[in-house]
Specification:
heterotrimer; A mainly alpha (317); B alpha/beta (451); C mainly alpha (274); B: 451 residues; alpha/beta; D-Maltodextrin-Binding Protein, domain 2; 2 domains; two-stranded antiparallel sheet; 19 helices; C: 274 residues; mainly alpha; MetI-like fold; 13 helices; 0% strand
Chain lengths: 317, 451, 274
């Protein structure tokens, strides 16, 4: 569901959609009979029952101390207090923030680099092959990515084999089991999954840039770097915004990859909020605390994503 | 999203909020769980007859331990109306899943249990006392079932909630070839001797200890082995059984933790121990990549097969010469779910495992463990010169020395996953001090008991 | 504008490096999957005697037949219904512009960034109360609800762009709203619907969290959930694990390769366009 976050329709769409003065009452008969609502209702009901109701319940649970089986005890905001004071839980939230660097910044930066180099290469047969392959990580379950990379990064895995082959055997280690490298190693898995998507998005966006802009820049005597800064980057603002949004959500709400590759260890080195919510709710039966953490996670996602949405659309010409 | 916040007039947002509030009050009129009453039936009428109706027993067992399946197969052979549907997971996964699985309507009849107190508290486990009386399990040595009893929030006394598919003993397996290579002629008699051997192995280029520490802390094995020796083992047992006032913050535990830290710093564990899982450890040990491995007799049959004649076993040595051996020894606990559809058949199976001659033999040959059961039944013997024979003998020796204690990992439902495992991983990676370790484990323990 | 030769060359080198990195994990899994059972393979080495039989073992161990059936059943339960009701809602909000529609749309937008972890706990108890735990319904029903924000958003964006004159014309014809929707609008919306279908198929097939929380029986889960169970059981047998994982991946890969053009288009639009 990582790429589920669409962006709001652009102003362009809205303008086109309101061409006639009749738009306010295109279907007066439907309006009168309320039939219009019948079309919206099924989706709304499913959404209300299976998303809004649970969401409200999460808020409610978060105010209780409940083991999921017996009767709950009202504790007010105590669970939130725990989330913000327990050093383990803070560390866990911090881990998710660190993952943003890997899930988000690296794929976007690398994607930009590659995109600016290949600009128009993704046409033709070679382009199709490239796109297909780069999209593979998006298509397979994250669980599979986790399994594949656990093996790659294990003591006997390919990464260490390669290191030993070039005489760097001293650096070889169990990457996912080492306190210093476990979190970055998990991050690398995420970067692998999201790099293809970001690259293709950016390349596609770049192909839409008016070549005249580049011509103009070159006539001004701009080198590749200035060209990138002056033309490419501003033109890709929206695509970059989308990439950041999608990948940041993937980082903060990560679960599958961590669950499979490290189960949160060593120590709490790679435990992320999603995993901790699952553990607290279903293994340790602290449903209230789990719910409070869930609410915090939800707000954290919004706090990270909304500014990006604003920036990337803000004063776009 | 942008549209929501930037284009939505404030009025609308207010409306939204009030809509949500309506939904809130609609659901929030009662505290969670109020309408969920526990439905533990305690009617004492239990059947000890299996009957002839076709039954399918749902069993939830541990991957990599073929005993449960072997026993189930044999049982079906003897009782053709009973079939088993066995689901297997790794132990860590069972620990994680057990409460949820047992609370669901598809709860298995027989399940490999992690820790019991919480499950009992939540009414998820069937009280086996009626079966205890009906089947006359009072003829078993009382100590055998002691760990399976849960009373008023403590363990060790009270009602019976589980039975063992074999009763295991733990100790140290060693690779005989590597042992003679470093000049070890007989098992060490004291902890000091054991440490000398570790040092010798290290200088001789032999990996001293092959121990897993991923997912669950395998280094808790040597840790508790040391802890048992450095103090009064009843202190350890009291803590595990949640006796009031018991604490993990003892000089014995601290000294054990310091020793583990020392071993880790000396490189007695593998560098990738935190990334080595149980199967990986056994695999490496079988390949001859380690001198010692702390493990239990459930692995004996397997080791006899994979490294015949090359593997030995000893109980962890005592601190001073001639002292009393203490070892972690526990039933391979299986319980009957409170929601089991066929509790009588499940109990019949558990009784059969302890008393049927063929089943007892399977417990030994496949499970590698003492079958338990009434003391007047003979313990099936193992082939001579096998490690299986050695572990069986150790098990009997421990019985006569009365040195069995449960695993500290079983003290509470969350202690292993929430404290021992992560803290032990930190300890051996130099991220935690021995003092910090002991305090962290005790803190988690108190947190859980106070819930 | 022509790119210089050097620029093109570096571009290609970069792309090829990227492709190698993308493919390596799969290749490494394959090499491990072909080693003899019970060995501890290392890195990437082509086995002298590839054990293709491991895949047969994994097929049995994973109960592939049942897994495929289960995933297909879940997809069949989720995707058509989601697409239909989302299209209807998109039509209602984007074309009919029902009164109060903006508030409803705002409600849907609320769910757009919602991590599934935020609702999975109450969903568990809700499913328990409904007696649906450990059935495929426990995955199907919540997924439909959880997809609604994106799906409605997506379809509304399409219908907002359809000129209202079209509907006007239909009104002159005297057709009912349903006829207009079903005969005129839905056929026109086919590309949007196709992309949505592909995305939902993929997300359903790969759904992990709901599967492991709400369904314990691996043969009643989605493919990703089943793979999780397979890892839970065989995680210690690397050879079998790799063989099984590749096997479980295969159906997705085949579908992807057949429809790759549509997939990529859908995925790109899914993230960029509204």
């Amino acid at each position: 569901m990582t790429s589920a976050l669409g962006s709001a329709p652009t102003g362009r769409d809205d303008r086109r959609a309101r061409p006639t003065p009749t738009r306010a009452h295109p279907f007066p008969w439907a309006r009168a009979a309320g039939t219009g609502w019948l079309y919206v209702l099924p989706a709304l009901v499913m959404y209300a029952v299976f998303v809004l109701r649970p969401l409200v319940l999460t808020l409610q649970y978060s105010l209780y101390d409940w083991n999921g089986i017996g009767v709950a005890r009202w504790v007010g905001l105590d669970n939130y207090l725990t989330v913000f004071t327990d050093s383990d839980l803070l560390k866990i939230i911090g881990n998710a923030m660190v993952l943003i660097v890997f899930f988000s910044f690296i794929p976007v930066a690398l994607g930009l680099l590659v995109a600016s180099m290949v600009r128009r290469i993704t046409t033709g047969a070679f382009g199709t092959v490239v796109r297909t392959i780069l999209f593979l990580p998006q298509v397979i379950p994250l669980v599979a990515a986790g399994i594949a990379w656990s093996w790659l990064l294990s003591s006997n895995g390919l990464v260490n084999q390669a290191l030993r082959a070039v005489g760097l055997g001293g650096v070889a280690r169990a990457w996912l089991g080492d306190f210093d490298t476990a979190l970055p190693a998990v991050g690398v898995i995420g970067a692998w999954v999201l790099l293809g998507l970001c690259t293709i998005l950016l390349v596609t966006g770049m192909s839409k840039i008016d070549p005249a802009l580049y011509e103009a820049a070159r006539l001004d005597g701009a080198g590749p770097v200035r060209e990138f800064l002056a033309v490419t980057l501003p033109s890709l603002r929206q695509e970059i915004g989308v990439c950041l949004t999608v990948t940041i959500i993937a980082a903060l709400a990560s679960f599958d990859i961590v669950y499979i590759s490290t189960s949160g260890g060593p120590g709490l080195q790679t435990t992320v909020p999603g995993l901790e919510i699952y553990r607290l709710a279903f293994s340790q039966r602290q449903v209230g605390l789990a719910s409070a953490l869930a609410v915090v996670l939800m707000l954290l996602v919004l706090a990270c994503v909304l500014p990006i949405q604003r920036l990337s659309r803000g004063e776009k010409p | 999203m942008a549209e929501l916040l930037t284009k939505f007039p404030r009025r609308r947002t207010v409306l939204l909020a009030s809509l949500l509030a309506v939904g809130m009050t609609a659901t929030a009129c009662s505290a969670p769980g109020e309408d969920r009453s526990s439905t533990q039936k305690s009617d004492a009428a239990v059947k000890t007859e299996l009957g002839t109706d076709p039954i399918t027993l749902e069993m939830y067992a541990e991957t990599g331990f073929p005993l449960a399946k072997a026993l189930a197969d044999e049982f079906s052979k003897q009782h053709s109306n009973v079939k088993f549907n066995i689901r297997e997971d790794q132990f860590t996964v069972i620990v994680e899943n057990a409460p949820r699985v047992m609370a669901s309507d598809n709860s298995p009849d027989i399940i490999r249990l992690p820790t019991m107190v919480d499950l009992v508290k939540d009414d998820l486990l069937k009280n086996l006392d009626p079966y205890f009386t009906a089947y006359g399990w009072d003829k078993f040595p009382a100590s055998q079932l002691m760990q399976l009893r849960v009373g008023e929030n403590t363990r060790g006394t009270g009602s019976l909630y589980g039975m063992g598919l074999g009763y295991s003993v733990t100790g140290v397996f060693y690779n005989k070839k590597l042992a003679s290579q470093i000049g070890m002629t007989q098992p060490p008699a004291t902890v000091a001797e054991f440490e000398e051997l570790l040092a010798k192995a290290k200088t001789g280029g032999v990996q001293p200890i092959m121990q897993f520490n991923k997912n669950t802390a395998g280094i808790n094995f040597p840790h508790q082995a040391l802890q048992n020796q450095f103090g009064d083992p009843t202190q350890v047992a009291d803590w595990i059984f949640q006796k009031p006032g018991a604490t993990f913050d003892t000089p014995a535990a601290l000294k054990a933790t310091q020793t583990i830290q020392k071993w880790a710093q000396a490189g007695y564990f593998t560098k990738d121990a935190n990334a080595l899982d149980y199967a990986g450890m056994v695999g490496e040990f079988q390949k001859g990549n380690g001198l010692f491995m702390f493990n239990g007799d459930w692995e004996s049959a397997n080791l006899d097969k994979s490294m015949p004649g090359n593997v030995g076993f000893f109980l962890f040595p005592t601190e001073s010469p001639g002292g009393k051996h203490v070892a972690m020894s526990a039933p391979n606990t299986f319980g009957v779910s409170a929601k089991a559809k066929n509790p009588d058949a499940a109990a019949y199976f558990l009784n059969w495992v302890h008393t049927n001659a063929k089943a007892r033999e399977i417990s030994v040959t496949v499970g590698g463990s003492s079958p338990g059961g009434p003391s007047d039944l003979p313990v099936p013997s193992a082939a001579p010169n096998t490690v299986l024979a050695e572990t069986l003998k150790a098990s009997q020796q421990l019985g006569t020395e009365n040195g069995a204690v449960d695993f500290t990992a079983n003290a509470t439902g969350g202690i292993f996953a929430a404290a021992i495992t992560p803290e032990m991983q930190k300890l051996i990676a130099g991220q935690q001090t021995p003092e910090g370790y002991v305090k962290a484990v005790q803190a988690e323990y108190q947190k859980e008991l106070s819930r | 504008m022509n790119l210089s030769r050097r620029e093109q060359l570096t571009g290609r080198v970069f792309l090829i490096a990227l492709i190698v990195v993308t493919l390596l994990p799969f290749v490494s899994m394959l090499s491990a999957a072909l080693q003899p059972r019970g060995t501890v393979p290392s890195g990437l080495e082509w086995p002298s005697d590839p054990q293709w039989g491991n895949f047969a073992d994994a097929f049995t161990a994973a109960n592939m037949g049942a897994l495929l059936r289960s995933s297909l059943l879940i997809v069949a339960g989720v995707v058509p219904v989601s697409v239909l009701i989302a299209t209807m809602a998109g039509f209602g909000l984007g074309q009919l512009r029902v009164p109060g529609g903006r508030i409803v749309f705002g409600l849907f937008l609320l769910g757009l960034t919602l991590p599934f972890e935020a609702v999975v706990t109450p969903l568990y108890y809700q499913m328990q109360d409904l007696g649906l735990l450990n059935t495929r319904w426990a995955i199907i029903l919540p997924l439909i609800g959880l997809y609604m924000p994106f799906a409605v958003f997506w379809m509304r964006a399409h219908f907002t762009n359809v000129p209202v004159e079209l509907s006007e014309a239909a009104r002159v014809d005297g057709s009912s709203t349903w006829q207009l929707f079903w005969r005129v609008q839905v056929p026109l919306a086919r590309p949007a619907i196709a992309s949505l279908t592909i995305l939902m198929f993929l997300w359903t097939w790969n759904q992990f969290l709901l599967a492991i929380v709400l369904v314990d029986d691996a043969t009643k889960r989605t493919m990703a959930g089943a793979l999780g169970a397979f890892q839970g059981q065989w995680g210690t047998d690397l050879v079998l694990l790799c063989a099984g994982s590749l096997l479980i991946l295969t159906p997705t890969l085949i579908v992807f390769l057949i429809f790759q053009r549509q997939f990529i288009k859908a995925l790109i639009q899914g993230s960029v366009k509204g």
